[in-house]
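Case study.
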Amino acid sequence: MQTWQFIVQNYTQVLELTFEHLWLVLVSTALAVVVGIPLGILITRRPLLNKPVLGLANVIQTIPSLALFGILLPAPWIGARADRLAILALTLYALLPMIRNTYVGIKSVDRAIIEAGRGMGMTDHQLLWQVELPLSLGVIVAGVRVATVISVGLATIAAAIGAGGLGEYIFRGLAMVNNQVILAGAIPAALLALAADFGLGWLEKSLSPR
Amino acid sequence: MHDAAPPRDLAIEFRNVAYRLENGRELLCDLNLQVRRGETLVLLGRSGSGKTTTLKLINRLLDASGGDLLVEGKPVRGWDVIRLRRMIGYVIQEVGLFPHFTVERNIGLVPSIDNWPPERVRKRVQELLKVVGLDPEVASRHPRELSGGQRQRVGVARALAADPPILLMDEPFGALDPITRAELQREFLDLQRRLQKTVVFVTHDLREALLLGTRIALMETGRLISLLTPEEFVRSSEPMVTAYLEAFGTDLHDWRTH
Ligand SMILES: Nc1ncnc2c1ncn2[C@@H]1O[C@H](COP(=O)(O)OP(=O)(O)OP(=O)(O)O)[C@@H](O)[C@H]1O
Ligand SMILES: [Mg+2]
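After joint prediction, the assembly is written out as follows.
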């Protein structure tokens, strides 16, 4: 219960860190959506790019997060500010679920439906926007959901490079060997992850065909 | 040997057409076939004989690997593929309705992408629902809310929507109970008497072929075995044809009475 007291006493700072955390997650997820969905669509159109793109996204996913921050540090403009660095790293991690789900979603649309559309003289553009994307929206949103939940967890590590967020409390608590402080960061982060999972899960269900 | 200009009354012409897979397997071999304007040519053959493959060559869902294929006297490769497909109605074997569209949007799809005004599309859909014998109130339903037979009717209506001169119908009445099937066959004959489309109709049902076809092209393992009118077909002594006739029983002399 002392944790609650700590949170209540420091609620302005807890809120501030929560918003910082949310900001990192929202910006990086939005970037991953903007880059990942077109890439996912691209590899359904250019099968040759399929292996390299998914392979690269996979490799990024296997780099430990602290190491990724370190790798990106020398990058110009990005490396100059901790929050930019954190956002880029989080974006890179979120790419794989975005690309993969977009690709799988489109590829799993019933062949017969695609064939009917093409046979009736729909252009590739019409087929994509009127048939393939609407029918794979549920799977694509599932990708956004996975990416967001992963990102809420990973964003705690951003505090290690001074990018802020709820990780601040976790690292501070670890240094002070103080569970209260750790939990003041971990509990709001867990709640954020649950809320994102629930909200996007609901969206996914309502967008899935049938 | 390909010198002759195509006669004016030919809608589709296959000249020595072949279709091979990338691994070299030949699905169609040296196909020669002419479809006259306004006729119903039935492609009859067993499962895997190449009927669907033949249809898909016509609207270029597949590209022939050899020979010449002409639509309205022009090689299919010379056509703009989107324009070619929009003047060919296509009823696919698996029906393939768009599950996220209402019946109205499904049927009105080609007119819509051809930029008809919405009011005209709506009218056309109502008209077509009547043509294929569906209640106008199904317009607002989704495909999953229809029976299999109703879906097949919607598939046919969708193919007719932009009034294409050519229709490709791949087992449009497959998987239906015999009564509904007979009903749809009658309606098809009625419709065809009025509309006089060029139809290539795929079936493996001999009775259906005899009833609907002006000519029957019998296919077997990617080859055209015979091309006969129904009258010629029932009298033929070609071994493949008689095998077919025997498989369907001997009461075929009254094939056109119902
Ligand atoms: N994309 C493909 N890859 C490999 N084989 C194929 C492909 N498409 C068709 N085939 C093969 O080509 C042959 C002819 O197929 P097709 O679909 O034209 O037959 P069909 O006469 O329409 O049969 P059905 O009555 O069962 O629909 C079959 O042996 C089939 O297995
Ligand atoms: Mg077939």
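Observations recorded in class. The mean pLDDT of chain B is 91. Chain B touches chain A through 26 residues (CB under 8 Å). We will return to this complex in the next lecture.
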